[in-house]
Amino acid sequence: MPATCSARSGGHSKAMYESYFQLRERPFALSPDPDYLYPSRVHREALAYLRYGIESQAGFVVITGEIGSGKTTLLQALLRGLDAQTTVVRLMNTLLEPRELLEAIAIDLGIVPSGTSKPALLRDLSFRLVEERAAGRIVLLVIDEAQNLGLPALEEIRMLSNLETEKSKLIQTILVGQPDLRQQLDLPRLEQLRQRITVSYHLDALDQDETEAYINHRLRRAALGTPMQLGRDVTDRVHERAKGVPRIINVICDAALVYAYAEDRRSVDAAMLTDVFQELEATGVLKPLSALQAVTSAYVAQGANGNHVEPVRQPVTAESSISPAAEVSIEHGAALDRSREIAEQQSMLRLREDQIARRERQLGEQQRVLAEEYRLFRSRQSRELARGAAEQARQRPFHATTWPPAPVAVSDSWEESERRTFWDRVKQAITGVRS
């Protein structure tokens, strides 16, 4: 890193580099923004498979890809394009037990459980799925990071998919995860679930041409004026180091823009990337080339039998230094990504609160209707009893021996004057009958 970097970066505000490069926002942020989705071959194919799975009302759709391959961004683009006839239930926290999984689905559907037992919860879910289908809506269950689901949870999802009509499933499921998900689904215990998978696709890494197009596509999307473009020599070096993984491409390009900003450079060149790689290695964001080569060799050696090798992160030495440019990138990127994560969580909480409030209003309306129906029932019952008593009184024959009538049992609370008035009315009624 040149010695001038520290001095020059001190003259710049750490706020952002966007205005320096005339950008609306950071083009290489790590948040999954569908506005920045680059339609590479694999992403176009994956999106087409997802849409086909939904339109054909298939049982299970499985999408896998390495960490940072763009799975979540792809999902965001898919969900944005769905119409109002699709009710989406999206689960992002997958470290759940089977019962917790069902409860999370119920909450997203706005269900207020009618009981505490699992059968009651399943009954409530069944009723809601039937209601949605009767209203012409499709319920789409989307599970991100599905490789974290345990076998019991996956079995619970399969059992939930048993709910169906004669022609289609009541719930469609999309499982999205890392390659480990495929290893889970290959287990003998999940044979029944595997047989229900109708669409399956794996997101491969970008090639060199796609990496160049991907980088410059994001720069164009973020540009306020004439877009900044990176040359092929730069994008080839980025591709070589990132192995075509979009998230690593974003990390490198974001750090390169911060470096250029700190150095008062209006563009990024290939020589600059050497310093950028060193900075990212020093902070542990990138692995040293020696580690990458070792991991690549292990993948090649064991790729034939499908074994998965987890890369080992290299330790950061105490002597590693962090330049101001790297500090700007790390601090700003982490703060922005965290704020977006918090905003997304708050939005999900508000959505769930709205769903619960709507369900409570529905329950209140149902209680009001039931109370009114009960009142009308009691009123009709009282009138029918009164009519029956009057009819019996008219049909009862009159006998002279019944006069004077036996005393009628009345409440002790009646006053004497009220008793006389009562018997006067009885005598008048009998006199009227005799006449």
Task: Tell me what you see in this structure.
The protein has 435 residues and is an alpha/beta fold. It has a domain at 20-269: Rossmann fold (3-Layer(aba) Sandwich), CATH 3.40.50.300. 56% of the residues lie in helices and 7% in strands. It is built from 15 helices and 5 strands. It has helices spanning 4-10, 41-55, 71-80, 98-108, 118-134, 151-160, 180-185, 191-195, 208-222, 232-242, 246-262, 270-282, 289-302, 324-395, 416-434, and strands at 60-65, 86-91, 138-143, 171-177, 197-203. A 5-stranded parallel beta sheet has the order 2-3-4-1-5, with helices on both faces. Strand 3, helix 6 (151-160) and strand 4 (171-177) form a beta-alpha-beta unit. Helix 4 (98-108) packs parallel to helix 5 (118-134) and helix 10 (232-242) packs across helix 11 (246-262). The longest helix has 72 residues, at 324-395. The radius of gyration is 36 Å and the shape is elongated. The termini are far apart. The relative contact order is 0.11.
